[in-house]
Amino acid sequence: VLASAGAVERTYALDRRHVFHSWSAQATVDPMVVTRAEGSWLWDGDGTKLLDFTSQLVFTNLGHQHPRIVRAIQRQAAKLCTIAPAHANDARSEAARLIAAHTPADLDRVFFTNGGADANEHAIRMARLHTGRHKVLSTYRSYHGGTQLAVNVTGDPRRWASDHATAGTVHFFGPFLYRSPFSATTEQEECERALAHLEQVVAFEGPETIAAVVLESIPGTAGIMVPPPGYLRGVRDLCDRHGIVYIADEVMAGFGRAGRWFAVEHGDVAPDLLTFAKGVNCGYVPLGGVAISDAIYETFAQRPYPGGLTYSGHPLACAAAVATIQVMEDEGVVDHADRLGREVFGPALAELARKHAWIGEVRGVGVFWALELVADRVTREPLAPYGGGSAAMTAIMTAAKDEGLLPFVNFNRIHLVPPLNISADEALVGIGMLDRALSRAARSV
Ligand code: PLP
């Protein structure tokens, strides 16, 4: 049952009167009222049904209102809504066990946080105390969270307003062949040159001053650039040579999104710390965390770890994580995501690129895809500038919604990131909507 027009109006009016929105000029905010959501679909205030190709902020990995997750939260609420982090609790213990069962190598201890930003903050704190060093290296094309240190580690323009000279953060360029910062023309060249560049940054910053390299295993919001073969291995080796902690940020790419439990598996390496959030429990209740290697665990075996959160390992969030991971195991969701990437998204988006001159590049893996849109395929001029928008991108967004599709748009890119358990048929329905939206937008601009 959808909400009445009056209820929708009231929701909207109260939002505009009292809710302060993220990353926005408040007077320009125009939120869509959502009255219902189920699986890969949601309904707006007018009752229009939309296919959710965003998984919201790429977190409803098993779709909206998954009955097993909803039931797990309800049962946990009836049993024990909350308990302080110092106590042991069955939901928390079981969530930690299940997460550790899937993280690479010896990353078997889990520190729970409320989301991705604080997971990265704590991972960096652990790395700094473990190494006795301060600096943190990360890529320009990255997002690591909105809190003070996490936003400084972030490379994308959301960092600019909060840049803080004493944060100890240094940025470098990761591999991105389509817009190679190294003038490379092959994946192998891009990989070699990106690693040589990072080696130089480390040398010039002083290896003995660097606590950690923080790296999204596949950069997400920055553009879904799957690293070339050998890159993550090269980063791992570089960190080993210099005693630097390798932090893999798997907040967006982890928990099956890239067709593996963790995207770092594509590079066949294990980090020292791995941060997660979002897909760990579909975001039904806020949860994030850091998975910790034995060596870093040992640093804090006898010496107290100076950090904590009131809601670390919140039972409702952990019960949702247990149910999410069990559904992923029982229903083969990671293999399904991998197959969707190879058999549906890959071929269908390649076909889309043949039809639409705006599509400069298609890239991705699993259920994690980006269309890089360009005004000109030869010059590769982006359809919107870095950090900005354009009339063409707005036209595409509007046309997509008219077709019944909710797309994830960032600068000159469209990301296709629906729930991992979307069916092949529904995925093709969404790609068909995008196909028609691109044609309509191209005619209108
Ligand atoms: N790291 C990555 C890769 C992310 O994509 C995000 C959020 O989009 C974060 C960290 C921050 O997570 P949160 O918004 O839960 O703090």
TrEMBL record:
<comment type="similarity">
    <text>Belongs to the class-III pyridoxal-phosphate-dependent aminotransferase family.</text>
</comment>
<dbReference type="InterPro" id="IPR015424">
    <property type="entry name" value="PyrdxlP-dep_Trfase"/>
</dbReference>
<dbReference type="GO" id="GO:0008483">
    <property type="term" value="F:transaminase activity"/>
</dbReference>
<protein>
    <submittedName>
        <fullName>Aspartate aminotransferase family protein</fullName>
    </submittedName>
</protein>
<dbReference type="InterPro" id="IPR015421">
    <property type="entry name" value="PyrdxlP-dep_Trfase_major"/>
</dbReference>
<keyword id="KW-0663">Pyridoxal phosphate</keyword>
<dbReference type="InterPro" id="IPR005814">
    <property type="entry name" value="Aminotrans_3"/>
</dbReference>
<dbReference type="InterPro" id="IPR049704">
    <property type="entry name" value="Aminotrans_3_PPA_site"/>
</dbReference>
<keyword id="KW-0808">Transferase</keyword>
<dbReference type="Pfam" id="PF00202">
    <property type="entry name" value="Aminotran_3"/>
</dbReference>
<keyword id="KW-0032">Aminotransferase</keyword>
<dbReference type="InterPro" id="IPR015422">
    <property type="entry name" value="PyrdxlP-dep_Trfase_small"/>
</dbReference>
